[in-house]
Write a structure and sequence with these properties.
The chain folds into two domains: about 15-55, no CATH class; about 60-90, no CATH class. It has helices at about 20-25, 25-35, 50-55, 60-70, 80-90. It is mainly α. The protein is globular and about 60 Å long. Helix 4 packs across helix 5 (about 80-90).
């Protein structure tokens, strides 16, 4: 039996509570990620969570995809479920 596969593209807008994410991620781990990406700051005072996330993720979609990767779930995972999986990991 021959299987036919079709690829579709779905665009979706997802809201992520940045405060909740920041409360779970350490500044050191974000800085380590920046170092791995060889990103630099113009001002050393900007090495805080908000500036780091702005450097790492140019859009909320980028951040959501990264969080899905961390949780080991697909990009379609509902927001509440994704956040619960991330909480369980901590």
């Amino acid at each position: 039996m021959e299987h036919l596969f079709k690829t579709i593209t779905i665009d979706a807008e997802v809201e992520v509570d940045l405060e909740e994410v920041l409360s779970k991620i350490t500044t050191d781990s974000l800085i380590a990620e920046l170092d791995a990406r060889e990103e630099e700051f113009d001002n050393p005072d900007n090495r805080n969570e908000y500036h780091i996330l702005n450097k790492l993720y140019s859009s909320p979609d980028d951040l959501r995809r990264h969080l899905c990767d961390i949780a080991g779930v697909g990009y379609h995972e509902p927001k509440d479920s994704l956040l619960n999986k991330l909480k369980d990991m901590i």
